[in-house]
Amino acid sequence: MELTHTAPSVSSDEFKHTKIVATVGPATNSYELILELIKAGANAIRLNFSHGTYEERDQQIAWVRQVSHELAKPIALIQDLQGPKIRLGDFDGVIPVQKGQSLRFRKNADYVREGVIPTQYDLSKKVKRGERVYLYDGKVRTTVSSVSDGVVHVRVENDGILIARKGINLPDTDFEGDILTVRDRKDIAYGVEHDFDYVALSFVQTAKDIKTLKNMLVTMGSDAKVIAKIETKAATENLEEIIEEADATMVARGDLAIETEPESVPILQRKIINLGLEYGRPSIVATQMLASMAESPEPTRAEVSDIATAVLIGTDAVMLSDETAAGKYPIKAVEIMKRVIHYTQDNAPLDSVYAKRDRQMSCQGAISKAIVSLADTINAAAIVAETKSGATALKVAAERPKQPLIVVTSSQRVAQQLTILYGSVTFIRHDEHYQAAKLTDWLKLHKVLKKGDVVVTASGQRPGVVGTTDTIKVRALD
């Protein structure tokens, strides 16, 4: 087991509460650039399995783990599954289409010979008459008029063009639990072998999709957590059951805006974060947060406002995709995101005011609420919590304490998984009595905490045993 002994370089009141997920791709495909991403403020690294080879992944995983070891800083590795590849197939040039026109689609069709537009996915097995089919990432809207012999017939609702390999969205289509492709299953096996901390599931529709993936992971001997990507209309209709079943959620705003309506996304984003707080599930806000920085060294004002809004409404993490995977300014994008997070939390501290429903609170939930209430009442400098499984940290963070949450665990895996958790910094120590107190002394020695600080500690009588947090103490550092 690797132990984290390096102290943070800043005092506890300078910790950033909202975490940053950065995607590695061609623009950051080296040890040096991954090191710079993490030094700039990235807490988790996402690998997008829609692109790249296993050989490239082998190297990227090794680099991330090497950086984590050398910086003595836990870093979460997120495997983002491709899901059903619902895209147009290959054809030359562009295909102009007009309102009222009829089009035909079939998997792997030859457009030149048949006049049938190719797709990479067999739509005929899923879509039904009257359902909407959005082409070219929503730019061309159509409705299914009939399905026969593997061919889908649609009527076009607006003028536009079609370009090869562009995305197709099916907001009305029920995939009936069939969202894990043969490719995904192969990727999951690879991910288990390479010890990812999270697996992000694309095109989730119901809680059953999450359960299926969880069962696969358990069967393969993995303790990776599952992130539910909320990007389909069906998912928005089953939000609560999905968030309750998942370990974390991602607001995948690109496809979500097409599947629903763009104006619904800010409201759904708030609802997802709210439910995450209620169930103690971390939330990640993703897609186009700094999209202009793929080409420009400076963000737009709207992008800065977007990040600040996500921080203000209480998300655990914000994510960069193309900005760090393929953009021209990947490191600067992380630096700017970190600056916006810090400025926002320093000048408009989060005060979570989501209405919570009356429901039976667990013992662990009640203890976590008491910890945060006590810390607020005595104006504590920090909360220090022992945890074996991470559950105590998740429950305390869900109360969105104003104080930094300093977590101590004996599990390298748990430490890595907690890197996306709001307001937390995690240290790895052997299971022993007085873990929290000993860590507090060590942090004071390294000037992360200082003489006179008051801290609230949460611990259990049986170190290393899951679910035994039962003791709250107040300690003044002298």
Describe the structure.
The structure is a single chain. The chain has 478 residues and is an alpha/beta fold. Helices cover 35% and strands 22% of the residues. The chain is built from 16 helices and 21 strands. The protein has an 8-stranded parallel barrel with strand order 1-2-3-12-13-14-15-16, surrounded by 7 helices. The chain has a 6-stranded mixed sheet with strand order 6-5-9-8-7-11. Helix 1 links the parallel strand 1 and strand 2. Helix 5 runs parallel beside helix 7. The longest helix is centred in the first third of the chain and has 18 residues.
Strand content: 15-25%
Major β-sheet strand ordering: 1-2-3-12-13-14-15-16
Total number of helices: 16
Largest sheet: 8 strands, parallel, barrel
What does the average pLDDT come to?
93
Helix content range of the residues, please? 25-40%
Query: What is the terminal separation in angstroms?
Result: 32 Å
Give the overall form.
elongated
List its salient traits.
eight-stranded parallel β-barrel; elongated; 21 strands; alpha/beta
Short overview:
The chain is built from 16 helices and 21 strands. It is an alpha/beta fold.
Secondary-structure topology with pairs:
Elements: E1 19-23, H1 31-40, E2 44-48, H2 54-71, E3 76-80, E4 94-97, E5 102-107, H3 111-114, E6 117-119, E7 132-135, E8 140-148, E9 151-156, E10 160-163, E11 168-169, H4 182-193, E12 198-201, H5 207-219, E13 225-230, H6 233-237, H7 239-245, E14 248-252, H8 253-259, H9 265-279, E15 283-286, H10 301-312, E16 317-320, H11 322-325, H12 330-347, H13 363-377, E17 382-386, H14 391-398, E18 405-409, H15 412-417, E19 424-428, H16 435-445, E20 454-460, E21 469-476
Parallel strand pairs: 1-2, 1-16, 2-3, 3-12, 5-6, 12-13, 13-14, 14-15, 15-16, 17-18, 17-20, 18-19
Antiparallel strand pairs: 4-10, 5-9, 7-8, 7-11, 8-9, 20-21
Helix pairs in contact: 1-2, 1-12, 5-7, 7-9, 10-12
